[in-house]
Amino acid sequence: MLPSIHRGIWRAADHILRTSRGTPPCRFLSTFNGVPVGIADAETIFALSSGHGRCGVAVVRASGPASATALRCMTGLTRKLPPPRTALLRSITDPQSKEVLDRGLVFWFPGSVPGMRPAEAGEFTRRAFQAGKLDLTEVEGLGDLIHAETEAQRRQALRQMSGELGRLYQDWTHKLKRCLAHVEAFIDFSEDELIEDGVLNQVDKSVCDLQAEMERHLKDERRGERLRSGVQVVIAGATNAGKSSLLNTLCQRPAAIVSPIAGTTRDIVETALDIGGFPVLLSDTAGLRESLDLVEREGVRRARERVEQADLTLVVVDCTDLPSDAQQAAAFLQDHLRRVLPNQEQPETVFPADRLLLVLNKTDMLPEERRLKLDRELRRVSGLPPVCLISCHTNEGLQDFLTVLHGSVKTLCGDPLSGAPTLTQARHRAHLQQCFAALAQYQRYRDIDLALAAEGVRLALTSLGRITGRVGAEEILDIIFKDFCIGK
Q1: Whole-number Å distance between alpha carbons of 249 and 236
Q2: Which of 79, 103, 202, 254 has minimal CB crowding within 10 Å?
Q3: Residue 276: which residues within 8 A CB-CB, separation 6 or more?
Q4: Fold assignment, 140-220+423-484
């Protein structure tokens, strides 16, 4: 239930809605990919911007042709509005009963687009996009910031919301527009000797450079997407190795049933974690073994499927099962990894160290001398992924394991504040791949049919424009006349 101040303002806003229905609507139009979009009959909208629930301060935002009427009626400003963008302390009253609802600051921002109703979800942001104040990448960055759960997600969202990714795509868009303008100008006017012979050579170089930039941008190993949605970390291994105990230790609650009976876990148990500021979706899986039990066999199938999809696999091994000799222990672990991991049956397998951690559990059951020797010797063995010795019972070695885990997760996500901006949405990647393929069409038809080659550039431009939501044919004509002064 809303606090009384919110209910009062809502009641007052409803009154403004009823009294402003005679306000003539306006037409608010924008373009997206050259197609007019927007709000045909713009209304005044309002929303509680500070969120629902109990709070010391409530912020109500209104936009539309009845905003000035609402401000006057609710603050007693009968003649003129306050100066633009200036805070004014006023009593806020119900326009009908004149009951004082609260005392607070009001701001007037003139120039909003042209009745009153509650805003739909995201409507203020939609209007900002339609007014050209935000492109789609900035809108998506704002959405990611709202839903960010970790520090690294927040940093990435802030960077995208600041427009850095959008500016990169706008720069590519500008270059593609110039390429398309030059090709079309050559097609239309070259016979009149109004276009220089080297124009197409410049286009060829620009297209090659853009392809190289896009290829590097696409080869990001999905770091931005992984950071946005969370790193998929899967705990796998044989039965009774301590997989569920590791899950419970990491999430610090009994999320999974722990039992000495082998095969207790039969389905996927998931929990979300924050590992040093990075989002992780941790999954505990059924123990990998042959079984006649149909339910357990299904659990094993699901476990293997989840390992195939994992960004990072934690292979848990009961260290009491290891041979006492370190070299034999290394061979045992390599053979075990081949059985656990998909498509790793060959003896010469090189295990992906950046996607795999070996967790030797139950070290509290080993004599200290043997544990220290095992740790020392296994670190020297080549051909094994990073090895961590821990005890889920005593938490021994847990801090070192968390440090290694954090490093692996950070490598998979990358630093959101360094380097070039990364792709954060599958939508971006799909459109960029289409753009790249369209530029390949230009290369393919460049010496065969220049019109088809130009169509490749046009398709590339359209695909790129779908990422930011901005592309128009008028700009192509502007470049033609600006660069070549056709007809003066």
Answers
A1: 15
A2: 79
A3: 406, 409, 410
A4: Four Helix Bundle (Hemerythrin (Met), subunit A) (1.20.120)
Indicate the SS3 state at residue 266: coil
CATH 3.30.1360 fits 4-133, yes or no: yes
* CA–CA dist 117, 13 (Å, integer): 8
DSSP string, 358-385: EEEE-GGGS-HHHHHHHHHHHHH-TT--
Number of neighbouring beta carbons within 10 Å of residue 72: 16
If 0-12 CB within 10 Å is exposed, 13-18 middle and 19+ buried, where does residue 364 land? middle
Tokens of 61: 């935002």
CA dihedral for 6, 10, 16, 17, sign (positive or negative): positive
Q: In sequence order, what are the residues at sequence separation of 6 or more whose Cβ sits closer than 8 angstroms to the Cβ of residue 155? A: 416, 417
Separation CA 397–CA 380 (nearest Å): 18
Q: Tokens at residue 486, please? A: 């056709």
Q: Which of these, 67, 44, 56, lies nearest to 6 by C-alpha position?
A: 56
CA angle, 110 then 114 then 117, to 5°: 100
Contact present, 471 and 173 (Cβ < 8 Å): yes
Per-residue pLDDT of the chain (488 residues; tens, 9 = 90+): 334 444 555 555 555 445 444 444 433 333 333 433 344 346 788 887 776 666 667 788 888 888 888 888 888 887 788 888 888 898 888 888 888 888 889 888 876 644 557 677 778 888 888 788 888 888 888 888 888 899 999 999 999 988 999 999 999 999 999 999 888 888 877 665 556 667 888 989 999 999 999 999 999 889 999 999 999 999 998 888 888 889 888 988 876 667 666 666 667 888 899 999 999 999 988 877 777 778 878 888 888 888 888 999 999 999 888 887 777 888 888 888 888 877 655 555 556 777 899 999 999 998 888 888 888 888 877 778 899 999 998 999 999 999 999 999 999 999 988 888 899 988 899 999 999 999 999 999 988 888 899 999 999 999 998 888 876 545 544 544 455 444 44
The answer to whether the predicted template modeling score (pTM) of the entire model surpasses 0.85 is: no
- The fold adopted by the segment(s) 225-413 is Rossmann fold (3.40.50)
Alpha carbon distance 479, 476 (integer Å): 5
Nearest to 404 by CA among 388, 393, 415: 388
- The structural domains of the chain, with segments of one domain joined by +, span 4-133, 140-220+423-484, 225-413
Number of neighbouring beta carbons within 10 Å of residue 79: 5
Query: What whole-number distance in Å separates Cα of residue 319 and Cα of residue 359?
Result: 9
> 380 CB contacts (<8 Å, ≥6 apart)?
none
